[in-house]
Amino acid sequence: MDNSELIPVQQAPAIRGLSNLLRSELKSWWKTRKWISYSIMWIFIINIMVFLLFSIDVPGQSDSDVIRQGVIFYAIFAFISSSIGVIISSQDTIIGEKQSGTAAWVLSKPISRRSFILAKFISDFLGIITTMIIFPGIVVYLQIGLLHGTWLSIPGFVTGLVLLIINAVFFLSLTMFMGTVFDSRAPLLGISLGFLFGMQYLTSIDERLIEYIPYPIGNPVLSDPLIVQAIYQESLWTIIPLVVCSLFAVIFMIAAVMRFDREEF
Amino acid sequence: MTQPIIKLKNLSKSYGDAVIALSDVSLEVEENSIFGFLGPNGAGKSTTIKILLGLTRPTSGSATIFGHDIRRDSLAIRSKIGYLPQYPHFYDHMTAREVLDFSMKFYFSGPQPLLDDRINLLLDLVSLSNKADRDVKGYSGGERQRLGIAQAMVNFPDLLVLDEPASALDPIGRKDVLEIMEKLKEYTTIFYSTHILDDVERTSDTVAILNHGELIAQGPIETLLESTDGILYSVSLSTEGGDLTPTREKLLTYDWIGSIDQGKNGDWTVKVTDEEMAERYLLRKLLEDEQIRVNQYSRVKYDLEDVFMRVVAD
């Protein structure tokens, strides 16, 4: 029993095991029915709602007003539903493995804990943005074009989706960090969903706070949602929420890696 | 002389002030041995194993495996170890073959045909070849355990660490797992925890007994079975006159006989200080008196349960 004919894995210790873990995580998204069921579910949820909103006939409104109104509803609805979707679908990413014992099993192999977290983050990121944002976004774009004969600017629409993705990454990293801190789902869901639904109330403390949270990305505050402004290729009234979201996503991921390094199984 | 593969020195682990999981545990595991780590539930066996694997940090003390420090060189250690958790859980969407492929690729990147050969070999070893392409979520406890052993063997480890490998299994599953362990004995050192005394007695060379986080006995299994009260013989005699006192007094004149205790049923327990003299002469001396009939004569052998119960009760 010897290993002389096999090629040993050569990877830097900090990312040891990353490629294998990532391959496995991606497989769990794309080689199972998960991506199909997620895609169908989110297209159904988002696009049925958008279809209904576009069908409301308001007398006296021009076609472009109707479309803009529909895009605003899409921004609000996609923002809230993708945020909830991210939290719900990634709540188990770390906690589920801690509870089931698979994390301890995998970490007994020669891998770094950083690789474990990164592989989960990358695969969830790709799975979530594709099934919850990109696929429904494409359908919305086609809905507007085919039903109203107005084709929105593709670069503008893509920029709008990028803004949604930045928001999703913020909630994904927050949820993953919470997964490294807690051993049960209840506090994770409480804090993440509490923050999502409590954001608008922060303005009652100090209205300037609204620029430092993701809320304006998908909600009308002082102006249309940033997503809508991006889709119509208008100047964004503020970019601070995007910067803050990106910054906090990085901070949460660093914190998740550090916390997971201290985790005991 | 073989080198110790595992060396623990005053290893302790506590959770806050209230819970002491391990207290000053020191032990050595020699190469190519089967080391049984024995103790009741909650004794600290799994904690020790998790510390060795870098899954938990010790509060104090030190440990080395293959000469590598467990805190600084955990990655190097884990490259040479195979580990079976107490309750093996795998990703449900994987088949057994995929679990082994996934496990193997933490160690080797190819060539794929050789990796596949090894996977087939291991599936054969644990008798799972006919179920290799089924999702593991449908596996029974015994099948999961066998798959657990196979995945622990993918890198042909120098040290196999098994946490309660047979405790959750039915008698047939247990027998299978113990047989696999015996097969693996010639290739690797096995360090395994258990609370099943029969398993240890059947498979281990060396035993350590842990209770309430403290190591209370350790050594080669034969030594442990013999040591506590020295060498004893159980003798049942009868005589027509009914008085065995002269025989007893005569025996006690030999300097290799330490004591003779009489039990409630009249049987004697003879403690000897020289094993060879006892083997050669004890029975002969008893038979010298033709009035005496020897109804029963045997060397007292403890089983591990006696030793375990005694040291744990102490």
Salient structural properties:
A: 265 residues, mainly alpha, 12 helices, 72% helix, B: 314 residues, alpha/beta, six-stranded mixed β-sheet
Could you characterize what this model shows?
The complex is a heterodimer of chains A (265) and B (314). Chain A is mainly α and 265 residues long. Chain A has helices at residues 18-30, 34-54, 63-90, 92-100, 102-107, 113-148, 154-181, 185-198, 202-205, 215-218, 226-231, 240-261; one strand at 7-8. Helix content of chain A is 72%, strand content 1%. In chain A, helix 2 packs parallel to helix 6 and helix 7 packs parallel to helix 12. Chain A starts with 6 loop residues before the first strand and ends with a helix. Chain B has 314 residues and is of the alpha/beta class. In chain B, the strands form three sheets. Chain B has a six-stranded mixed β-sheet with strand order 6-8-9-3-10-11, sandwiched between helices. Chain B has a four-stranded antiparallel β-sheet with strand order 2-1-4-5. Chain B has a four-stranded antiparallel β-sheet with strand order 13-14-12-15, covered by helices on one side. Chain B is elongated and about 80 Å long. The two termini of chain B are 33 Å apart. Chain A binds chain B through residues 1-3, 5-10, 13, 16-17, 20, 23-24, 27-28, 32, 100-102, 104-105, 107-112, 264-265, and chain B through 50, 53-57, 75-76, 78-79, 81, 83, 85, 87-91, 93-94, 102-103, 105-111, 114-115, 118, 155-156, 187-188. Strand 1 (7-8) of chain A pairs antiparallel with strand 7 of chain B, so a sheet runs across the interface.
